[in-house]
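Dear support,

We are seeing what looks like truncated structure output for some complexes. This example has two components. We would appreciate it if you could run it in full and send us the complete token output so we can diff it against ours.
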Amino acid sequence: MHHPLTEIESANAASQIDQLRQSLRSVLFGQDSLIENVLTGLLARGHILLEGLPGLGKTELVKGLSKSLGLDAKRIQFTPDLLPGDITGNPMLQETETGRRFIFQPGPLFANLVLADEINRASPKTQSALLEAMQERRVTVMGETHLLPDPFFVLATQNPIELEGTYPLPEAQLDRFLFKLEVRANDAATLEQIVLHREIGVEPQVAQVLSRENLASLLELVRRVFMPVPVANFIARLVHATQPGQPHAGGIHYGASPRAALALAAASKARALIEGRLNASYEDVRHAAPHVLRHRLLLDYRAKLEGLTPDLLIARLLEHTPAQDAPLPSSLKAAKL
Amino acid sequence: MSADPGSDERYWQGAVRGLSRRIHFGWWLDHWLTLLIPVSFIGTAVILCLRFWQGLPTQTAIKGVAACSLMAAIAAYFWMRRHRESLSATRVRLEDALGLKTRLSAAATRIGPWPASHRDLILPVTFRPNRSVAMVTIGVALLTTALLVPIARKQPDNPRVIEPPSALQEVQAWLDNIKKNEAANPESIEQVEEKMTELLQRPAQNWYEHANLEAADHLRDVTAADLQQLSQNLADAERAANALSASAAGSGLPQAAKDSLEQALQNASQSMQGAGMQPGGDLMDALKSIDPSQLSNMSSDQLKDLAQQLAQNQQSLQEALKNSPNLDLSNIPEGRPGKGEGEGEGDKEGPGKGAPKRGPGTAPVTLASEDTQLDTNKIESLKNPLDLSRLATGDALSVTNGAAKVDPKKYTGPQQGGTTASPGDGGSAVWQNALIPAERETLKRFFK
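Here is the complete output from our reference environment:
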């Protein structure tokens, strides 16, 4: 049992996170929501799947994040011929003082921040190796287990429009991602800022605002954020409501797993810490629910024919899942405050 | 946050309790309104019935309605407890509606401080007045209608009493008076009463059927006749006894008259003993004890005593029936000597049996040498001439024997050429048009 947060701790944490947010805003224009959600996923110790068109700043976000936190960042461009060893690393035959021997040469996974670009272009075998490393936070090659650095975050991207030669991630592997975020195109004002402040081929200068230790401390504080019983009950009812057969789960073929509930709780706590609060709230759950659930719901053919999307279904579920489950008497109505 | 940390807690706990009370009141109102409509309908029906059947006063009805409403309120309270909501659940409603981000729940578990008090807190639950007002209005309207609608109290049912036929009532009155005056033998009275009971045991609605009325009238007539006969016998016996007593005392009646009086006393005694209505009390025993052969040996006192008993019974009988207009016994003659012709051979006046106008003595009988010729042995023939004015359908005027006249040569069978000389066989055409081909073509063209 963790000790609950104190107000001072939460205020300091919120201040540090705000510095990090400001730093990222200087790198990525007009994507405040994306930055907010990435920070939430980062603090919840989750991996994030980014879906969006190329050139929207995904790589810049990872680079900025690594620089702001002083973390080691690597980028892997997934291609169909990429082998698992290419990302995990391979034992290499090397000359040593004791003679020739195989020495493990770490792959690009051995970094604090890994940008797995176009993950759906890699073969299922390679995808599987990556997702196993994401889950276990270690790599086993030729019988030798190698722990991945701590912290270890993966930000994977996938292009939603080019499906030729891709290997869509199966649902079981999608479940490993805490968030699935949609990177939206910038508006004109944002583009104007980009044109004014960026130049092709010139890396933006980002100062480190938090140390690795600060990040570890923040991650620990997230765990100590208080989860009230009503909020846990709300998360449980919301996740349960995604199961087929539930009153408002029409169109859902497979619902969210218990891992989704855990992810939702962790994301809610992280968001509470970002806002400097001591406890998670219904608002945190409602905010995180679309990002946590949208890649975990498998729609049936009817929902697809009707043009329903996971986001629409999640919105419907949130609408019909009140914070307090007990109904009001018919002589009363909930006032809108 | 206010200076006093406890004040914020009290404020929010109070707000939660207030919201909880409002929610519970809402549940109670829901259940009460649910009960109100059926209670109103039932109450309306009950009030109308009570007003109709028992003339329920308005004040009592209002008290009853109030009591029923109170009972419904109590029942709604216990029903409401099934929806009891805990304070923590209500707290969730409040913090969610106010956007407090679960700070109330956290503070309630001693995580973090209570939020600052709101200056003008609006509870996130309001009443829907329309439904409540509508249902209360319906209920009140129903009950008010039941209280105010003019309705007459049902008049109590008067049981339909069917009086026994007047003949039986008359007989019953006679018997009652006779019993009261002990003017007749109780056994005789019981026999008549049994017959009355037998008639009255029949269904009352059948008492006035023709047969029952006839039976009642017959019973009255028979009873009247018995009473008249008793009265007559008493009078006869009393007269005879008085006369015999006087004779025994030395008045010196001829032997024939004495015999006639003894015979009259004996006849009257025997008639009373065998009658349907016998004298009452000790008189019957006294009459039975008289030996007809020793009648002439009875002393004057004995006869006088007997005459007194007879007169007393006669008086009791007349007293009992004095108010019976259809049974007037006062016309029965007293024991005075009549002036009519007696049946004895003497030509002196003396007592005898006879009608009041005729006087005592037997009715004169005219004797003739030839019997009355009524021509009862003559056979008369009845003629039955045919009256044509009274004939009915189907009456035969006359019957004649003979065979039908049929001309077998009249029918010659079907014939050719459209002739009508013969009506032909049954079913065959009796008229045929023969058209030449040109005419037939002309007709076809016309009808095309």
